[in-house]
Amino acid sequence: MGDEGWGAWLGPAAALVIGCCLGSFYNVVIHRWPKGQSIVSPPSRCPGCGAAIRWFDNIPVLSFLLLGGKCRHCRGAISWRYPLVELLTGIMAAGLYRAFGFTPSLFVFFTFGSLLLLIAFIDLDTYLIPDVLSLGGLVLGLAAAALFPHVRWIDAFGGALLGGGLFYGVAWGYQKLRNQDGLGGGDIKLLAMIGAFIGWKGVLFTIFFSSVIGAAVGLIVMVRSRRGLAARLPFGPFLSLGAISYVFWGEKLTAWYLGAL
Q: Protease as a keyword (predicted)?
């Protein structure tokens, strides 16, 4: 492989490693933040026996594989979520580097993707989306649109209004018709944040994509759990998946869908 070939892979490889390392920290945030615990102190510990995790047992993905998915001290099982979050963050970083290079858009969309990942896994665990992530992300998205050219500011502002307003309208209508909550306030704020980062077109794509995938997964959950419509399923992960899918493939998937019609 020539110098040019190595150069084409060096950046994404570095992004992959950095992303995996950041994913290790994201695991701490996902585990501790909903409990109101510090994300800085104490250092990482086994949730089973409380033993401190040494640095050589805390290498992203690799340590999990070498330890066979078990704590070195108590041999208790380590959740698959830890290497998954690390790997997803690394792959996202590498993919964004390939798509945007070392540009402001790389950092904007990596920040966006990181927020989506944190929100998705916290929502899976708690059925709650922290306002500090969704509303904080909304502010960051609007600021990024004003400072960088990844999306026009007017599109970001319109996307935030469309995302938050549309879901608020749906939630209000559902509550009036059924006299019970349908969409949570966290989903409304999340979609507003999504609109701030990727504009109104991204909001429409995210709603369609997440609804299709969410309906399919929801049907499977209802059947397997045998609880029917009573089965609970957080919608935040599907919105997050739809939004990051738009960043990578939104225009191509939209063009393909419209062409198929």
A: yes
